[in-house]
Amino acid sequence: MTTRRIDALDLLRGIAIMGTLGTNIWIFTGPAGPAGVLDALGGTGAVETFLRFLTNGKFLALLTLLFGVGLELQYRSAARRGAPWPGWYLWRAGLLFVEGLLHYLLVFEFDVLMGYAVTSVVVAYLIGRSDRVINAWMTGAGAVFASMVGLVTLVLMYGDVSTPPSGPVTLFTDGSYADQVATRIEFFGLYRLEAVFIVPLGITLFLLGARLMRAGALEDSARGAALRGRLMAAGLGVGVPLNLLTSFAGGDWVLVDRYLLPPLVALGLLALVTAAAHRMSRLSGGTPGPARRGLTAVGRTALSCYVAQNLIASVLCYGWGLGLAARFADLRPWWTVAAWAAICLLLATLSTLWLRRFQRGPLESVWQWVYAAPQRRFVTDDKMADNSPKS
């Protein structure tokens, strides 16, 4: 791996993290909060629908692809060291699950880390298999997910799924922080339904990310450029127009709009950003500008920024914080865009300053210490056994 390629990965992660906030910010800035998620994601009016189209599902899919790339790198690292696989990676997945659970309970209802943890365990046992096996799993999991989305879409189009009207939701405007945590516990199954639903999609995208890594999609080479050209043609030339169409097609197409077409667009974005990163590196002699430095810093502290952006948005929007969601409800969609931009700028600034003194983000440092702790104990026990007196 070259430094330029690693920089491209960090840049992609930073864009993906800020892009996921671009979807979630509509949930935070809605007075009903996560309880009104369908309204928040569905948009009200052409302007908000278009703004929501720019981020909805695309950067979540990009982040999922990048998790697959990361898993491939972990597998390569284990192979180089001659370490058993999945070995300690399962401990890593367990920690990710706990991190996601805490993030769900304490911060945000629609955490993705728990789902990624479950998916990574499945993919860890597949990533070293033959191309035939991996292709079969990608095709099978993708077909299962597409069938589920198609079935639900047909029910929405032709079934009677009307729900009785309900009163206004005041939990996120008037409720306390403890009330919200209690609600997340009470409705755990409901709020975690999406994480379970998209596991087949996650398996497909994890494996696809690993395959793209092996195929050289991130390389600054002729084969990488050729592959990126095909990905951009499919993702941006075909995926974007179709996704724009489904965004304005109405609520019946919500699952197609959020889950089926965005991964295609995400492939185009991955190719476009990587190509631009390599080109800028050549033109600038490897010296990034302020925008790229900020995005790369967010990518290097991705876990910290992912949690922080949701925590900051909660403080800004919910009633136990500044309560801006209710106060500025009439200023949507523009205040929503302003809130997203302000949080992104803050995270880019803080992460850049943090990395001037530390190698990892704050949560990454804690996470790495916890991850390495049992390994250090394991090595210590082995040394003590080797040095013990022999009878």
Task: Explain what you see.
The structure is a single chain. The protein is an all-alpha fold and 391 residues long. The protein has one domain. 76% of the residues lie in helices and 0% in strands. The chain has helices at residues 3-28, 37-42, 46-53, 58-81, 89-106, 113-124, 131-158, 171-174, 177-186, 188-191, 193-197, 199-215, 222-247, 254-260, 262-284, 290-300, 302-317, 324-327, 334-355, 362-387. The model is unreliable at 1-5 (pLDDT under 50).
Summarize the structure.
This protein has 391 residues and is mostly helical.
Unreliable segments (pLDDT under 50, ≥5 consecutive)? 1-5
What would you call the shape?
A: globular
> What's the helical proportion of residues?
over 70%
Radius of gyration: 22 Å
Strand residues, percent = under 5%
> How many domains?
1
Give the total of beta strands.
Answer: 0
In DSSP terms, counting alpha (H) and pi (I) runs of 4 or more, how many helices? 20
Mean pLDDT: 89
What's the main sheet like? none
Q: SSE string, helix = H, strand = E?
A: HHHHHHHHHHHHHHHHHHHH
End-to-end gap: 49 Å
The helix/strand class is mainly alpha
